[in-house]
Amino acid sequence: xxxxxxxxxxxxxxxxAMLGFGFVTGSxxxxxxxxxxxxxxxxxxxxxxxxxxEGIIRDYLLKNPEVLLEAQEALEAKQKEAQRVASLAIIKDxxxxxxxxxxxxxxxNPNGKVTIVEFYDYNCGYCKRAMEDMKTLTTADPDLRxxxxxxxxxxxxxxxxxxxxxxxxxxxxxxxxxxxxxLLGAQGRATEAAAIKVALSLGADEATLRExxxxxxxxEALSKTYDIANKLAITGTPSYVVGNEVVFGALGxxxxxxxxxxxxxxx
Length: 267
What we know:
The protein is α+β, with helices and mostly antiparallel strands. It has helices spanning about 5-25, 30-40, 50-65, 65-95, 95-100, 125-140, 155-170, 175-185, 190-200, 205-210, 215-230, 255-265; strands at about 105-110, 115-120, 145-150, 240, 245-250.
């Protein structure tokens, strides 16, 4: 193969590689356009041997494997930014449901200037450990409003415990913080029976509580929470919404404090 043909073939190989990486990095249209442009720049009499082109691409990737890592990093960064932008719109559109649902408990200052919303499950071990973060943050910051959003995703026991919790909140919202801390901080698995036991210990009437548990608006509220979580790409607990940002996972008090300060600065 003469030099001109080699250069043309190499150009086409690179173009094909770009097309492949374009799909990896989520830009197929741009990559395809670039690939076509490069391919068109090759000599008109260039004959492409598929095996040779594949060999060129293979050799290049074996000699430069970091390109694959760079492509993966670019993809992750692009997806993360796309999710951040999408989350801004979702949080704006569902602001009342996220921050002001009548079914959510509130601890700290109910009139605080900054709100952090925690999506949690009573049977989540990370949520149990993160409870201390909530206590520390609300104690240290008298202007912090901390919203507790039921997000039972760890099976039927979690769902039933949340129904009791939400019914209790509708009945005795002034004692919801105590209920939350007692159930989330208890040893063993949170169940309907365990949640009812905590509610009764705080003065709830069992017959009234069980009747309130049948309220269809509780199921409707949980359905809305699942929908919002899905749109925000929240799939685990704990997860948080602080200002206009979604924070995934139990990242600790210091990280949450930083996010809270950033939300304050944005006011």
